[in-house]
Amino acid sequence: QVSTQSTWGGCEVTAFSSHPDDKKDLINKLGAHHIVNSKDEEELKENCTGKFDLILSTVAVSLDWALYLTLLRPRGRLHLVGIVTEPMEIPMFKLLAGQKQVSASPVASVGTINTMVEFAELHGIEAMTEQFEVNSADDINKALKKVEDGDIRFRAVLKFC
Fold this sequence. Notes:
This protein has helices spanning 2-7, 20-30, 41-48, 65-70, 92-98, 110-123, 137-148; strands at 14-17, 34-37, 52-57, 72-80, 101-104, 129-134, 155-160.
């Protein structure tokens, strides 16, 4: 999402990371203008309060949603595409006072996906994948083991030879 948004005209992109020092080079390569430590509540409050029109959350963990709502500008939106399994505690007053929104979507429409693929092609944005050449069932099992162990950074692709 970082590379798409940073390429989109007029977007200033801030990446939230729980390990910004470890991921700084990658995040910069993807085109983020700023990086903040999502685990540093003081940094978030001091540097990010009221700064964002949109926060796109791709994580599948529960966060301090009340804190993230304070990072939005009035009429800002917190949009989730990661699946958070616990109920979300959203303070209604923060929504009402700033006319803020919380929304979620599992995947875009076919038309929107086609538009994004065309945009990515036009701007040379490629999916970051790790490819596995498959010559036998053992090769598939090795790839699955890396997925199970969490050793795949983005997407695993099986290439049948």
